[in-house]
Protein backbone atom coordinates (compact mmCIF):
# COMPACT_ATOMS: atom_id res chain seq x y z
CA UNK A 1 0.00 0.00 0.00
CA UNK A 2 1.01 3.58 -0.57
CA UNK A 3 -0.17 5.06 2.72
CA UNK A 4 1.02 8.63 2.32
CA UNK A 5 2.31 11.11 -0.24
CA UNK A 6 3.98 14.51 0.04
CA UNK A 7 5.77 17.04 -2.11
CA UNK A 8 7.39 20.46 -2.03
CA UNK A 9 6.48 23.34 -4.32
CA UNK A 10 7.61 22.74 -7.90
CA UNK A 11 9.68 25.04 -10.09
CA UNK A 12 12.44 27.39 -8.98
CA UNK A 13 13.39 26.87 -5.35
CA UNK A 14 16.57 28.92 -4.92
CA UNK A 15 18.54 28.26 -1.78
CA UNK A 16 16.94 24.89 -1.08
CA UNK A 17 19.28 21.92 -0.93
CA UNK A 18 18.12 18.48 -2.10
CA UNK A 19 18.44 17.30 1.49
CA UNK A 20 16.17 20.04 2.81
CA UNK A 21 13.63 19.34 0.06
CA UNK A 22 13.73 15.60 0.81
CA UNK A 23 12.99 16.32 4.46
CA UNK A 24 10.02 18.57 3.59
CA UNK A 25 8.51 15.99 1.23
CA UNK A 26 8.97 13.16 3.74
CA UNK A 27 7.49 15.23 6.58
CA UNK A 28 4.39 15.87 4.47
CA UNK A 29 4.13 12.24 3.32
CA UNK A 30 4.32 11.01 6.92
CA UNK A 31 1.66 13.53 7.95
CA UNK A 32 -0.55 12.39 5.05
CA UNK A 33 -0.18 8.76 6.23
CA UNK A 34 -0.62 9.88 9.87
CA UNK A 35 2.53 7.98 10.77
CA UNK A 36 5.17 9.12 13.26
CA UNK A 37 8.68 9.16 11.87
CA UNK A 38 9.81 6.72 14.58
CA UNK A 39 7.84 4.03 12.71
CA UNK A 40 10.05 4.43 9.63
CA UNK A 41 12.50 1.56 9.32
CA UNK A 42 13.45 1.77 5.60
CA UNK A 43 14.63 4.69 3.50
CA UNK A 44 15.10 4.60 -0.28
CA UNK A 45 16.52 7.78 -1.84
CA UNK A 46 17.03 8.76 -5.49
CA UNK A 47 20.44 10.29 -6.16
CA UNK A 48 20.26 14.01 -7.05
CA UNK A 49 21.60 14.78 -10.56
CA UNK A 50 22.77 18.23 -9.50
CA UNK A 51 25.55 16.89 -7.32
CA UNK A 52 26.95 13.52 -6.31
CA UNK A 53 27.24 12.96 -2.58
CA UNK A 54 28.72 9.61 -1.48
CA UNK A 55 26.36 7.60 0.73
CA UNK A 56 23.65 10.19 0.23
CA UNK A 57 21.07 7.85 1.78
CA UNK A 58 22.81 8.27 5.12
CA UNK A 59 22.82 12.05 4.72
CA UNK A 60 19.04 12.04 4.26
CA UNK A 61 18.54 9.51 7.08
CA UNK A 62 20.52 11.72 9.45
CA UNK A 63 18.59 14.81 8.37
CA UNK A 64 15.36 12.92 9.05
CA UNK A 65 16.68 11.53 12.33
CA UNK A 66 15.86 7.94 11.43
CA UNK A 67 17.92 4.74 11.57
CA UNK A 68 16.71 2.51 8.73
CA UNK A 69 17.02 -1.26 8.82
CA UNK A 70 17.33 -1.27 5.04
CA UNK A 71 17.74 1.29 2.25
CA UNK A 72 20.20 3.48 0.39
CA UNK A 73 20.55 5.36 -2.88
CA UNK A 74 19.41 3.95 -6.19
CA UNK A 75 20.24 5.08 -9.73
CA UNK A 76 18.22 4.14 -12.78
CA UNK A 77 17.80 7.75 -13.88
CA UNK A 78 14.12 8.55 -14.30
CA UNK A 79 13.03 4.94 -13.67
CA UNK A 80 14.42 5.09 -10.14
CA UNK A 81 11.36 6.09 -8.15
CA UNK A 82 8.96 3.29 -9.11
CA UNK A 83 11.87 0.84 -8.92
CA UNK A 84 12.63 1.95 -5.35
CA UNK A 85 8.94 1.62 -4.51
CA UNK A 86 9.00 -1.96 -5.83
CA UNK A 87 12.17 -2.81 -3.86
CA UNK A 88 10.51 -1.35 -0.77
CA UNK A 89 7.42 -3.51 -1.36
CA UNK A 90 9.55 -6.62 -1.84
CA UNK A 91 11.56 -5.85 1.32
CA UNK A 92 8.33 -5.43 3.27
CA UNK A 93 6.91 -8.72 1.96
CA UNK A 94 10.13 -10.50 3.02
CA UNK A 95 10.09 -9.12 6.55
CA UNK A 96 13.09 -6.85 6.04
CA UNK A 97 11.18 -3.73 7.11
CA UNK A 98 7.65 -2.53 7.84
CA UNK A 99 7.37 1.16 7.03
CA UNK A 100 9.40 2.34 4.06
CA UNK A 101 9.90 5.91 2.91
CA UNK A 102 10.80 6.44 -0.75
CA UNK A 103 11.93 9.97 -1.56
CA UNK A 104 13.45 12.04 -4.34
CA UNK A 105 14.74 15.61 -4.49
CA UNK A 106 16.79 17.55 -6.97
CA UNK A 107 17.57 21.12 -7.99
CA UNK A 108 18.71 21.12 -11.63
CA UNK A 109 16.82 24.39 -12.21
CA UNK A 110 18.65 26.64 -9.75
CA UNK A 111 21.62 24.27 -9.34
CA UNK A 112 23.39 22.61 -12.27
CA UNK A 113 21.72 20.86 -15.18
CA UNK A 114 25.00 19.49 -16.56
CA UNK A 115 23.58 15.98 -16.31
CA UNK A 116 21.19 16.79 -19.15
CA UNK A 117 23.50 18.73 -21.46
CA UNK A 118 26.65 16.68 -21.41
CA UNK A 119 28.50 15.48 -24.48
CA UNK A 120 28.23 11.79 -25.23
CA UNK A 121 31.86 10.72 -24.78
CA UNK A 122 34.14 10.90 -27.80
CA UNK A 123 31.21 11.82 -30.05
CA UNK A 124 31.32 15.47 -28.97
CA UNK A 125 33.35 16.56 -32.07
CA UNK A 126 30.29 15.67 -34.17
CA UNK A 127 28.16 17.99 -32.05
CA UNK A 128 26.42 15.11 -30.28
CA UNK A 129 25.29 16.64 -27.00
CA UNK A 130 22.40 16.44 -24.64
CA UNK A 131 19.42 14.34 -23.68
CA UNK A 132 16.88 15.92 -26.08
CA UNK A 133 18.91 14.86 -29.15
CA UNK A 134 18.94 11.23 -28.03
CA UNK A 135 15.15 11.16 -27.85
CA UNK A 136 14.95 13.10 -31.13
CA UNK A 137 16.94 10.27 -32.80
CA UNK A 138 14.30 7.81 -31.62
CA UNK A 139 11.42 10.10 -32.62
CA UNK A 140 12.85 10.57 -36.13
CA UNK A 141 13.16 6.81 -36.64
CA UNK A 142 9.57 6.32 -35.40
CA UNK A 143 8.28 9.01 -37.76
CA UNK A 144 10.13 7.51 -40.72
CA UNK A 145 9.16 3.89 -39.97
CA UNK A 146 5.51 4.41 -39.07
CA UNK A 147 4.51 7.75 -40.52
CA UNK A 148 4.12 9.34 -37.09
CA UNK A 149 3.77 13.11 -37.44
CA UNK A 150 4.97 15.98 -35.30
CA UNK A 151 1.34 17.08 -34.93
CA UNK A 152 0.52 13.69 -33.40
CA UNK A 153 3.35 14.17 -30.90
CA UNK A 154 1.81 17.56 -30.27
CA UNK A 155 -1.45 15.97 -29.10
CA UNK A 156 0.51 14.58 -26.14
CA UNK A 157 1.81 18.02 -25.17
CA UNK A 158 -1.58 19.67 -25.67
CA UNK A 159 -3.23 17.16 -23.31
CA UNK A 160 -0.55 17.54 -20.64
CA UNK A 161 -0.64 21.33 -20.81
CA UNK A 162 -4.44 21.36 -20.63
CA UNK A 163 -4.35 19.23 -17.48
CA UNK A 164 -1.52 21.22 -15.94
CA UNK A 165 -3.43 24.45 -16.50
CA UNK A 166 -5.99 23.47 -13.86
CA UNK A 167 -3.44 22.10 -11.38
CA UNK A 168 -2.59 24.80 -8.82
CA UNK A 169 0.71 23.03 -8.03
CA UNK A 170 1.86 22.96 -11.67
CA UNK A 171 5.01 24.86 -12.60
CA UNK A 172 3.65 25.75 -16.05
CA UNK A 173 -0.06 26.56 -16.12
CA UNK A 174 -0.45 27.66 -19.73
CA UNK A 175 -2.57 25.57 -22.09
CA UNK A 176 -1.47 25.40 -25.72
CA UNK A 177 -3.07 24.61 -29.06
CA UNK A 178 -1.55 22.32 -31.68
CA UNK A 179 -0.61 25.46 -33.59
CA UNK A 180 1.22 26.88 -30.57
CA UNK A 181 3.02 23.56 -30.30
CA UNK A 182 4.25 23.36 -33.89
CA UNK A 183 5.35 27.00 -33.78
CA UNK A 184 7.31 26.78 -30.56
CA UNK A 185 11.05 27.35 -30.83
CA UNK A 186 12.93 24.61 -32.75
CA UNK A 187 15.47 22.83 -30.51
CA UNK A 188 16.73 19.72 -32.25
CA UNK A 189 14.64 18.39 -35.13
CA UNK A 190 12.19 16.82 -34.97
CA UNK A 191 11.71 18.42 -31.52
CA UNK A 192 10.70 21.94 -30.69
CA UNK A 193 10.56 23.45 -27.23
CA UNK A 194 7.12 22.11 -26.35
CA UNK A 195 8.22 18.50 -27.01
CA UNK A 196 10.61 18.83 -24.07
CA UNK A 197 9.84 18.61 -20.36
CA UNK A 198 10.41 21.33 -17.81
CA UNK A 199 13.55 21.67 -15.72
CA UNK A 200 12.48 21.81 -12.11
CA UNK A 201 13.58 21.93 -8.51
CA UNK A 202 11.52 20.02 -6.01
CA UNK A 203 10.95 16.87 -4.02
CA UNK A 204 8.30 14.20 -3.61
CA UNK A 205 8.03 11.27 -1.23
CA UNK A 206 5.77 8.33 -0.44
CA UNK A 207 5.26 6.03 2.55
CA UNK A 208 4.93 2.32 1.76
CA UNK A 209 3.68 -0.40 4.12
CA UNK A 210 1.65 -3.59 4.19
CA UNK A 211 -2.16 -3.50 4.26
CA UNK A 212 -2.09 -4.87 7.82
CA UNK A 213 0.40 -2.27 9.05
CA UNK A 214 -1.60 0.52 7.41
CA UNK A 215 -4.67 -0.67 9.31
CA UNK A 216 -2.75 -0.89 12.61
CA UNK A 217 -1.32 2.60 12.18
CA UNK A 218 -4.66 4.04 11.10
CA UNK A 219 -3.53 5.41 7.74
CA UNK A 220 -6.64 7.19 6.45
CA UNK A 221 -6.38 6.65 2.68
CA UNK A 222 -3.96 3.90 1.68
CA UNK A 223 -3.86 3.01 -2.02
CA UNK A 224 -3.12 -0.62 -2.98
CA UNK A 225 -0.11 -1.45 -5.17
CA UNK A 226 -1.45 -4.12 -7.54
CA UNK A 227 1.66 -4.70 -9.61
CA UNK A 228 5.08 -3.48 -10.57
CA UNK A 229 7.79 -4.33 -13.08
CA UNK A 230 11.07 -3.18 -14.56
CA UNK A 231 12.96 -3.56 -17.82
CA UNK A 232 16.27 -2.28 -19.19
CA UNK A 233 17.53 -1.73 -22.71
CA UNK A 234 21.15 -0.97 -21.75
CA UNK A 235 22.57 -0.15 -25.21
CA UNK A 236 23.33 3.49 -26.01
CA UNK A 237 21.03 4.91 -28.66
CA UNK A 238 23.61 4.51 -31.44
CA UNK A 239 24.18 0.83 -30.57
CA UNK A 240 20.58 -0.21 -29.93
CA UNK A 241 19.45 -2.85 -32.45
CA UNK A 242 15.94 -1.39 -32.65
CA UNK A 243 15.27 2.25 -31.84
CA UNK A 244 11.49 2.06 -31.83
CA UNK A 245 11.01 -0.69 -29.23
CA UNK A 246 12.01 -0.48 -25.59
CA UNK A 247 12.11 -2.57 -22.44
CA UNK A 248 8.93 -0.77 -21.40
CA UNK A 249 7.19 -3.79 -22.93
CA UNK A 250 9.01 -6.15 -20.53
CA UNK A 251 8.33 -3.87 -17.58
CA UNK A 252 4.61 -3.56 -18.35
CA UNK A 253 4.22 -7.27 -18.99
CA UNK A 254 5.67 -8.02 -15.55
CA UNK A 255 3.49 -5.41 -13.83
CA UNK A 256 0.26 -6.35 -15.60
CA UNK A 257 0.86 -10.07 -14.90
CA UNK A 258 1.41 -9.33 -11.20
CA UNK A 259 -1.75 -7.19 -11.10
CA UNK A 260 -3.73 -9.77 -13.03
CA UNK A 261 -5.06 -7.19 -15.48
CA UNK A 262 -4.38 -6.04 -19.01
CA UNK A 263 -4.13 -2.59 -20.55
CA UNK A 264 -7.83 -2.68 -21.49
CA UNK A 265 -8.70 -2.53 -17.78
CA UNK A 266 -6.71 0.65 -17.13
CA UNK A 267 -8.91 3.72 -16.49
CA UNK A 268 -6.25 6.42 -16.22
CA UNK A 269 -2.52 6.59 -16.97
CA UNK A 270 0.42 8.65 -15.74
CA UNK A 271 3.11 8.09 -18.38
CA UNK A 272 6.61 9.48 -18.08
CA UNK A 273 6.75 12.37 -20.54
CA UNK A 274 10.31 13.68 -20.51
CA UNK A 275 9.65 14.13 -24.25
CA UNK A 276 6.46 13.64 -26.24
CA UNK A 277 7.84 10.56 -28.04
CA UNK A 278 8.28 8.78 -24.71
CA UNK A 279 4.52 8.75 -24.07
CA UNK A 280 3.76 7.62 -27.61
CA UNK A 281 6.14 4.67 -27.45
CA UNK A 282 5.09 3.74 -23.91
CA UNK A 283 1.47 3.53 -25.08
CA UNK A 284 2.59 1.10 -27.79
CA UNK A 285 4.93 -0.94 -25.62
CA UNK A 286 2.27 -1.23 -22.89
CA UNK A 287 -0.24 -2.63 -25.38
CA UNK A 288 -2.71 0.27 -25.41
CA UNK A 289 -2.27 0.17 -29.19
CA UNK A 290 -0.18 -1.78 -31.68
CA UNK A 291 3.45 -0.86 -32.41
CA UNK A 292 3.48 2.04 -34.83
CA UNK A 293 -0.11 3.04 -34.07
CA UNK A 294 0.71 5.46 -31.25
CA UNK A 295 0.22 8.46 -33.53
CA UNK A 296 -3.38 7.68 -34.52
CA UNK A 297 -4.08 6.53 -30.93
CA UNK A 298 -3.24 9.91 -29.37
CA UNK A 299 -5.05 11.96 -32.03
CA UNK A 300 -8.35 13.73 -31.39
CA UNK A 301 -7.72 14.32 -27.70
CA UNK A 302 -7.67 10.64 -26.61
CA UNK A 303 -5.29 11.51 -23.77
CA UNK A 304 -7.38 14.41 -22.47
CA UNK A 305 -9.91 14.22 -19.69
CA UNK A 306 -12.97 12.61 -21.24
CA UNK A 307 -10.87 10.87 -23.91
CA UNK A 308 -10.24 7.14 -24.38
CA UNK A 309 -7.32 7.09 -21.94
CA UNK A 310 -6.94 10.22 -19.79
CA UNK A 311 -3.18 10.55 -19.34
CA UNK A 312 -0.96 12.75 -17.19
CA UNK A 313 -3.93 14.28 -15.45
CA UNK A 314 -1.79 16.58 -13.29
CA UNK A 315 0.24 17.82 -16.26
CA UNK A 316 3.16 15.39 -16.25
CA UNK A 317 6.77 16.41 -16.78
CA UNK A 318 5.65 18.72 -19.59
CA UNK A 319 3.50 20.91 -17.34
CA UNK A 320 3.37 19.99 -13.63
CA UNK A 321 7.09 19.57 -12.94
CA UNK A 322 10.06 18.18 -14.85
CA UNK A 323 11.09 16.17 -11.78
CA UNK A 324 11.83 12.58 -12.75
CA UNK A 325 8.78 10.54 -12.02
CA UNK A 326 7.63 10.54 -8.42
CA UNK A 327 5.01 13.24 -9.11
CA UNK A 328 3.35 10.76 -11.49
CA UNK A 329 3.06 8.23 -8.65
CA UNK A 330 1.53 10.96 -6.47
CA UNK A 331 -1.06 11.77 -9.14
CA UNK A 332 -1.83 8.06 -9.50
CA UNK A 333 -2.51 7.95 -5.75
CA UNK A 334 -4.77 11.02 -6.00
CA UNK A 335 -6.72 9.44 -8.87
CA UNK A 336 -7.27 6.27 -6.83
CA UNK A 337 -8.31 8.35 -3.80
CA UNK A 338 -10.66 10.41 -5.97
CA UNK A 339 -8.89 13.66 -5.07
CA UNK A 340 -7.22 14.74 -8.32
CA UNK A 341 -8.01 18.22 -9.61
CA UNK A 342 -8.64 16.44 -12.92
CA UNK A 343 -10.39 13.42 -11.45
CA UNK A 344 -11.40 10.68 -13.89
CA UNK A 345 -14.91 9.74 -12.73
CA UNK A 346 -15.10 6.20 -11.39
CA UNK A 347 -11.44 5.38 -12.10
CA UNK A 348 -10.59 2.02 -10.50
CA UNK A 349 -7.15 1.33 -11.94
CA UNK A 350 -4.20 3.57 -12.76
CA UNK A 351 -0.96 2.65 -14.50
CA UNK A 352 2.16 4.76 -13.90
CA UNK A 353 5.40 4.60 -15.89
CA UNK A 354 8.86 5.84 -15.00
CA UNK A 355 11.71 5.86 -17.48
CA UNK A 356 15.39 6.81 -17.45
CA UNK A 357 18.37 7.60 -19.64
CA UNK A 358 17.53 7.64 -23.35
CA UNK A 359 14.88 4.95 -22.84
CA UNK A 360 17.53 2.78 -21.13
CA UNK A 361 15.59 1.97 -17.99
CA UNK A 362 11.89 1.54 -17.36
CA UNK A 363 9.63 0.77 -14.42
CA UNK A 364 5.87 0.31 -14.19
CA UNK A 365 3.38 0.60 -11.36
CA UNK A 366 -0.25 -0.50 -11.28
CA UNK A 367 -2.42 1.09 -8.60
CA UNK A 368 -5.94 0.06 -7.63
CA UNK A 369 -8.55 0.54 -4.96
CA UNK A 370 -9.52 -1.33 -1.82
CA UNK B 1 37.58 24.83 -31.12
CA UNK B 2 35.86 21.48 -31.57
CA UNK B 3 35.77 19.44 -28.37
CA UNK B 4 38.62 16.92 -28.32
CA UNK B 5 38.14 13.19 -27.89
CA UNK B 6 39.91 11.66 -24.91
CA UNK B 7 42.47 9.40 -26.58
CA UNK B 8 43.36 6.43 -24.38
CA UNK B 9 45.49 3.33 -25.05
CA UNK B 10 42.21 1.60 -25.86
CA UNK B 11 41.05 4.16 -28.44
CA UNK B 12 44.45 5.17 -29.85
CA UNK B 13 44.27 2.69 -32.79
CA UNK B 14 40.90 4.19 -33.77
CA UNK B 15 42.14 7.79 -33.86
CA UNK B 16 45.52 7.01 -35.42
CA UNK B 17 43.67 4.96 -38.07
CA UNK B 18 41.61 8.00 -39.02
CA UNK B 19 44.76 10.12 -39.23
CA UNK B 20 46.14 7.46 -41.59
CA UNK B 21 43.02 7.67 -43.72
CA UNK B 22 41.14 4.57 -42.57
CA UNK B 23 38.15 3.89 -40.30
CA UNK B 24 38.93 0.96 -38.02
CA UNK B 25 36.58 -1.10 -35.90
CA UNK B 26 37.20 -3.85 -33.36
CA UNK B 27 36.73 -7.47 -34.35
CA UNK B 28 36.57 -10.42 -31.95
CA UNK B 29 39.05 -13.19 -32.75
CA UNK B 30 36.92 -15.70 -30.86
CA UNK B 31 33.35 -15.11 -32.05
CA UNK B 32 33.72 -12.81 -35.07
CA UNK B 33 31.64 -9.98 -33.60
CA UNK B 34 32.48 -6.48 -34.86
CA UNK B 35 31.82 -3.28 -32.93
CA UNK B 36 32.43 0.37 -32.14
CA UNK B 37 33.19 2.27 -29.95
CA UNK B 38 36.30 0.60 -28.57
CA UNK B 39 35.92 -1.72 -25.61
CA UNK B 40 38.24 -3.98 -23.66
CA UNK B 41 35.98 -6.98 -24.07
CA UNK B 42 33.73 -8.29 -26.84
CA UNK B 43 30.20 -7.40 -25.69
CA UNK B 44 28.89 -10.65 -27.18
CA UNK B 45 31.28 -13.37 -25.89
CA UNK B 46 33.30 -11.27 -23.37
CA UNK B 47 36.61 -12.32 -24.92
CA UNK B 48 39.56 -9.93 -24.52
CA UNK B 49 41.08 -11.15 -27.78
CA UNK B 50 40.36 -8.72 -30.59
CA UNK B 51 42.03 -7.06 -33.55
CA UNK B 52 41.32 -3.89 -35.53
CA UNK B 53 39.90 -4.18 -39.04
CA UNK B 54 39.42 -1.49 -41.69
CA UNK B 55 35.91 -0.53 -42.75
CA UNK B 56 35.07 -0.71 -46.44
CA UNK B 57 33.42 2.70 -46.11
CA UNK B 58 29.88 1.73 -47.03
CA UNK B 59 26.98 2.18 -44.63
CA UNK B 60 23.38 3.29 -44.18
CA UNK B 61 21.55 5.88 -42.12
CA UNK B 62 19.69 4.53 -39.07
CA UNK B 63 18.38 7.90 -37.87
CA UNK B 64 19.37 11.55 -37.65
CA UNK B 65 18.61 14.82 -35.90
CA UNK B 66 19.21 18.45 -36.81
CA UNK B 67 20.42 20.82 -34.09
CA UNK B 68 18.66 24.20 -34.26
CA UNK B 69 20.41 25.58 -31.20
CA UNK B 70 23.97 25.04 -30.09
CA UNK B 71 24.65 23.25 -26.82
CA UNK B 72 28.42 23.93 -27.01
CA UNK B 73 30.19 27.12 -28.10
CA UNK B 74 32.10 25.29 -30.88
CA UNK B 75 28.81 24.72 -32.71
CA UNK B 76 27.28 28.19 -32.53
CA UNK B 77 28.51 29.00 -36.05
CA UNK B 78 27.60 25.56 -37.36
CA UNK B 79 23.87 25.39 -36.63
CA UNK B 80 21.81 24.03 -38.18
CA UNK B 81 23.85 20.81 -38.42
CA UNK B 82 22.88 17.17 -38.47
CA UNK B 83 24.06 14.29 -36.31
CA UNK B 84 23.32 10.81 -37.62
CA UNK B 85 23.64 7.20 -36.59
CA UNK B 86 25.28 5.24 -39.41
CA UNK B 87 25.59 1.47 -39.52
CA UNK B 88 28.66 0.29 -41.41
CA UNK B 89 28.33 -2.56 -43.90
CA UNK B 90 30.43 -4.62 -41.46
CA UNK B 91 27.92 -4.06 -38.63
CA UNK B 92 29.34 -1.51 -36.18
CA UNK B 93 27.37 1.70 -35.68
CA UNK B 94 28.72 5.17 -35.03
CA UNK B 95 27.64 8.72 -34.37
CA UNK B 96 28.62 10.97 -37.26
CA UNK B 97 27.57 13.82 -39.58
CA UNK B 98 26.25 13.34 -43.11
CA UNK B 99 27.13 15.93 -45.73
CA UNK B 100 23.72 16.36 -47.33
CA UNK B 101 20.85 18.81 -47.50
CA UNK B 102 18.23 18.27 -44.79
CA UNK B 103 15.53 17.25 -47.24
CA UNK B 104 17.78 14.54 -48.70
CA UNK B 105 18.17 12.62 -45.44
CA UNK B 106 16.20 9.42 -44.91
CA UNK B 107 16.51 6.22 -42.92
CA UNK B 108 18.20 3.29 -44.65
CA UNK B 109 19.83 5.65 -47.14
CA UNK B 110 23.23 4.31 -48.39
CA UNK B 111 26.18 6.50 -47.41
CA UNK B 112 29.89 6.54 -48.14
CA UNK B 113 32.73 7.28 -45.70
CA UNK B 114 34.70 10.51 -46.07
CA UNK B 115 37.37 11.26 -43.49
CA UNK B 116 37.41 15.01 -42.92
CA UNK B 117 40.19 17.05 -41.42
CA UNK B 118 38.33 19.55 -39.28
CA UNK B 119 39.86 21.87 -36.71
CA UNK B 120 42.89 19.60 -36.34
CA UNK B 121 40.86 16.40 -35.93
CA UNK B 122 40.35 13.57 -38.42
CA UNK B 123 36.64 12.71 -38.25
CA UNK B 124 34.73 9.91 -39.99
CA UNK B 125 31.86 11.61 -41.80
CA UNK B 126 29.65 10.42 -44.64
CA UNK B 127 28.22 11.53 -47.97
CA UNK B 128 25.21 10.14 -49.79
CA UNK B 129 26.37 7.08 -51.74
CA UNK B 130 23.90 7.40 -54.58
CA UNK B 131 24.57 11.05 -55.23
CA UNK B 132 21.43 13.14 -54.92
CA UNK B 133 18.37 11.28 -53.77
CA UNK B 134 14.76 12.20 -54.06
CA UNK B 135 12.07 10.55 -51.97
Structural classification of chain A = alpha/beta
Oligomer: heterodimer
According to CATH, the fold-level topology of the largest domain in chain A is Peroxisomal Thiolase, Chain A, domain 1
- CATH A-level architecture of the largest domain in chain A: 3-Layer(aba) Sandwich
Strand content of chain B: 35-45%
- Placed side by side, the strands forming the largest sheet of chain B appear as 6-5-4-8-9-7
Order of helices and strands of chain B: HEEEEEEEEE
The residue fraction in helices of chain A comes out at: 25-40%
Q: Compute the number of structural domains of chain B.
A: 2
> What is the CATH T-level topology of the largest domain in chain B?
OB fold (Dihydrolipoamide Acetyltransferase, E2P)
CATH C-level label of the largest domain in chain B: Mainly Beta
User: What's the tally of helices of chain A?
Assistant: 13
Distance between the termini of chain B: 36 Å
Number of domains of chain A: 2
- Overall 3D geometry of chain A? globular
Comma- or semicolon-separated keywords:
heterodimer; A: 370 residues; alpha/beta; Peroxisomal Thiolase, Chain A, domain 1; 2 domains; five-stranded mixed sheet; B: 135 residues; mainly beta; OB fold (Dihydrolipoamide Acetyltransferase, E2P); six-stranded mixed sheet; three-stranded antiparallel sheet; 9 strands
What does this molecule look like?
The complex is a heterodimer of chains A (370) and B (135). By secondary structure, chain A is of the alpha/beta class. Chain A folds into two domains: 2-111 and 200-217, Peroxisomal Thiolase, Chain A, domain 1, CATH 3.40.47.10; 130-197 and 224-367, Thiolase/Chalcone synthase (Peroxisomal Thiolase, Chain A, domain 1, 3-Layer(aba) Sandwich), CATH 3.40.47.10. Chain A is 35% helix and 17% strand. Chain A has 13 helices and eleven strands. Chain A has helices at residues 18-33, 56-64, 80-93, 114-117, 131-146, 150-165, 178-182, 211-217, 248-259, 276-285, 294-298, 316-319, 326-337, and strands at 2-7, 42-46, 70-74, 99-106, 186-189, 191-192, 202-209, 225-232, 268-270, 350-356, 361-367. In chain A, the strands form three sheets. Chain A has a five-stranded mixed beta sheet, sandwiched between helices. In chain A, strands 8-11-10-9 form a four-stranded mixed beta sheet, with helices on both faces. A two-stranded antiparallel ribbon of chain A has the order 5-6. The model of chain A has no long low-confidence stretch (mean pLDDT 96). Chain B contains one helix and nine strands. Chain B has two domains: 8-54, no CATH class; 56-135, OB fold (Dihydrolipoamide Acetyltransferase, E2P) (Beta Barrel). In chain B, a hairpin with a 4-residue loop joins strand 5 and strand 6 (93-96). With 135 residues, chain B is mainly β. Chain B starts with 11 loop residues before the first helix and ends in a 7-residue tail after the last strand. The model of chain B has no long low-confidence stretch (mean pLDDT 94). At the A-B interface, helix 5 and strand 5 of A face strand 4, strand 5, strand 6 and strand 9 of B.
Amino acid sequence: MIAGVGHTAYGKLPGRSPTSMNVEAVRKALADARVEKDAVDALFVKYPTSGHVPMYGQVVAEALGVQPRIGGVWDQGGATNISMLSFAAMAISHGQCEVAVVTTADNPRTGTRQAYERAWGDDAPFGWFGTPAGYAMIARRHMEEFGTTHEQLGEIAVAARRHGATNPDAQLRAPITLEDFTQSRPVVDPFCRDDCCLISDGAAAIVVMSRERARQLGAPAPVPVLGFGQGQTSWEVAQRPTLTETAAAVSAHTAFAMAGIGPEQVDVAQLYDCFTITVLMTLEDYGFCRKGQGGPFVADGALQLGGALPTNTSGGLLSETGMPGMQLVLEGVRQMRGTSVNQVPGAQTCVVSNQGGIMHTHSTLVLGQE
Amino acid sequence: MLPRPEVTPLTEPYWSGLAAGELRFQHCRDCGNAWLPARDECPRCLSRSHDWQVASGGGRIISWVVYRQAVHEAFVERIPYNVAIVELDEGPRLITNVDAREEELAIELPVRLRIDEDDGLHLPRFTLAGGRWSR
